[in-house]
Amino acid sequence: MKARWWAVLLVLLAGFGVLGWGGRQIAENAPPVPQRILSADGARLVEPGQILRGQESYLGHGGQHIGSVWGHGAYLAPDWTAKALHQWAFHTLEGLKAQGLSQAEAEARLKTLFQTNGYDISSATLRLDPVQAAAYLKTRDELAHVAVDGERSAAIPARWIPTLQEGERVADFWLWTAWAAAAHPAGADHSYTQNWPQEPLVGNAITPISHLWTILSFVLLILGISLMVWHHARQPEEAFPDPKPIAPAPATPSQRWSALYFAVAMALFLVQIGMGVLTAHDAVEGNGLYGLDLSRLLPYAASRTWHLQLAVFWIATCWLATGLYLGPKLSAKEPKGQAIGVAGLLVALVVVVVGALGGSYEAILGKLSGSFMLGTQGYEYVELGRLWQILLTVGMVGWLVLVVRALRPALRGEKGQLGLLKLFVMAAIAIPLFYSAGFMYTRETNLAVAEYWRWWVVHLWVEGFFEVFATVAIALLSTRMGLLRESTALRAVALSMGLFLGSGVIGTFHHLYYTGSPSSISALGAVFSALEIVPLTIVGYELVASLRSGRALGSGYEWPFRYFAAVCFWNMVGAGVFGMLINPPSILYYGQGLNTTPIHSHAALFGVYGFLAISLMLFALRGMTPDRAWDAKWLRWGFWGLNLGLGLMLVLSLIPSGLYQITQSLAHGTWYARSAAVVQSPLMRTFTWLRMPGDTLFGLGALAVIVFTFKAVGGVWGWRTAEEAVKAPRRELDPAPAFRVAED
Q1: Residues 2/489, Cβ–Cβ less than 8 Å
Q2: What are phi and psi of 359, to 5 degrees?
Q3: The Nitric oxide reductase subunit B cytochrome c-like domain covers which part of the protein (predicted)?
Q4: Burial class of residue 515 (count of CB atoms within 10 Å of its CB; 0-12, 13-18, 19+)
């Protein structure tokens, strides 16, 4: 094995070693969950298990899709941590002033009360000052009534939490997250959440060390960019090869079924767009659609859950289908029974998708809220019930088996060398392996630990190993079409894997700055997430190379390469430029849970992974679609509609609304930036309505791609091989006998 692969292996081992060490640190330093909360005068506020039951209830009703906790979740409705902390602090301040303290004395005493850690580890009991305890009860009552009675402007439906008693338990959970956001662990000069959210009443302000790590992250980013440009400039310029497009050929039986995966993916894409429209509209009408009340039919939490789940489902389906198509293509042979396996897997996938969407819907409406297996886990991006998660993982293992058995003849040709095919198989193995990290927590797990494992799935699975899989797949196709020599492709893949995974694995920590993690996590997350931007500095070369390759190949391949060029562009803009809106601790401190995050998520999730899924789909379809069914005009309209629509959505709506919220956060605190006074202000409503031009153009572009896909899939299924044409009954070739029978 060449030195570069040993280097990649060492980078991975080091990265996961640090990630594992960080997980242990998070578990050891996670905010404790009190079994009891008592007032210093003996009054009982919380009994054993109440906070945990509140967490289970909150998540069981789709919690992270109505507001957020510690900044993670939906952007409509309050951040419950910030709201609970502010209201609790305000009522405590009023209680202190009622005792005769001056404003200054009351404010000083308030900070001391909230920053002092009254938790006793031996008895698992938290003791509060009587004034703070009275304010706790008052705040709990207010929050419980919001959870039960609802708030239309924030798209919280009435009876979201069915009973007042259950609402109080949910409020206990929110207040626990607020306590952890203000109380200082023993020996620390900051809270469990690194003083997030900003709250002047309790003295929560950004820590100086956060500024230090932000500065160092920018220094290392500049150094990394310089080294990357220097390395790229040192590479010898290779002559552009004489490319040869892979001529379309009738699909094998299993490849036909893989084409149907793409049709299913596009159907899911269409539904996802519809859910996104409803979710955005709820920001101005609150569970309504031009006067139609949707609070008990399709509430905000349900439409947002579906919007995010469907994004993962349709993108992953395209990637999985590409793997199923490439197996027989690269081996030039289809194993016996492969078509039955591919067809069966498609049916299983549909069952899982329908079950997951239906279960989360019923849970949000209160019918399956207690079912962790069938309803919803409640965590953003990993909402599906545990049963559907298990079945999806089993399905991915089945997919891996199908891909490997199809590639086996071609793998023998590499003769022990580490080539692109073996790398493709390794990347495929990583897909079910890292998705299984989602089994490491439940609704009862300490929230700090659950967030750690959740981001293994969201960041490592989606942004890490699916990207490696796609990189190797594109390299394989490029070598087979003569665009790259395999030695060149292997060097490029090794460099990409080393850079993306070397920074990305530890960069997972940048999602965990303020989720009950120690300050060491912030340091590592800040540095390595900034380094994730380094390889994107030469993305312009990839963009130009993609367009050049597409033009050189022609024969319809210019469109897969153009969509891949869009991936390169949005990787630079969405993951790179807008990624810096959430990577540095000093910036994220004021922007966590605000509309600056969806700027990055929309531009990166669809701009990078959505376009990449479409690009892979087009590569596969071009190889098995007859020319008569390859209608490129739909791809042209789709390309410009999707790109311009996404750009307008960002420029006219998400960017200005996010920046406006940050100004309010800087001036007044996180609670205010997420309050109705800001989120429901005329200016923010205007920004929401300004999404319409971009959303409309994006929707039309998506429809064009969907129409193209269905026409292409129809062409794949209607294109018979010569052998099938010979075996076909004569009446299919000559319809005349049927007419003669009718005449008789």
Answers
A1: no
A2: -65, -45
A3: 34-198
A4: buried
Of 569, 446, 393, 570, nearest to 177 by C-alpha is 446
What is the rounded CA–CA span in Å between residue 52 and residue 60? Answer: 12
Give the DSSP letter string of 162-185. -SHHHHHHHHHHHHHHHHHHHPPP
Other C-beta atoms within 10 Å of 415: how many? 7
Q: Which residues have CB under 8 Å from 212's CB, separation 6+?
A: none
The per-residue pLDDT for range 390-425, each reduced to its tens digit, is: 999 999 999 999 999 999 988 887 777 788 899 999
Residue 739's pLDDT is what? Answer: 27
- End-to-end, the C-alpha distance of the chain in Å comes to 75
Closest among 444, 461, 323 to 381, alpha carbons compared: 461
Residue 474 has a pLDDT of: 85
Q: How many CB atoms lie within 10 A of CB 124?
A: 13
Residue 434: CB atoms within 10 A of its CB come to 18
- CB environment 449-483: b (16+ within 10 A), e (fewer): bbbbbbbbbbbbbbbbbbbbbbbbbbbbbbbbbbb
Query: Rounded to 5, what percent of the chain is helix, strand, coil?
Result: 70, 5, 25
604 near 579, Cβ under 8 Å?
Answer: yes
**Cα(363)–Cα(359) distance, integer angstroms:** 6
Show the DSSP H helices in 573-654 as ranges: 585-591, 596-601, 611-622, 632-649
Q: Would you state the structure tokens that stand for residue 424, as one six-digit string?
A: 């493709």
* All residues at 6 or more sequence positions from 142 whose CB lies less than 8 Å from its CB, including other chains: 87
* Residue 594: partners with Cβ closer than 8 Å, 6 or more residues away: 75, 658, 661, 662, 665, 670, 673, 674
For residue 636, what are the CA distances in angstroms to 119, 141, 285, 314, 708?
62, 56, 35, 21, 10
Instruction: Give 546-559 pLDDT, tens digit per residue.
Output: 788 888 888 889 99
Distances (CA, A) of 447 to 169, 495, 597: 16, 36, 20
Calpha distance 217→77 (Å, rounded): 32
How, if at all, do strands 125-128 and 36-39 pair?
parallel
Pairing of strands 119-120, 72-73: unpaired
Are the C-beta atoms of residues 48 and 37 closer than 8 Å to each other? no
The CA distances from residue 387 to 70, 287, 312, 376, 730, in Å, are: 27, 29, 17, 10, 48
- Asked if residue 705 lies in contact with residue 635, where contact means CB atoms within 8 angstroms, the answer is yes
The segments of the chain whose pLDDT lies below 50 read 728-744
- Residue 482: the pLDDT is 84
Q: Do 154 and 79 meet the contact criterion of CB atoms below 8 Å apart?
A: no
Torsion sign (Cα): 404, 410, 413, 419: negative
Laid out side by side, the sheet with 119-120 consists of 44-46, 36-39, 125-128, 119-120
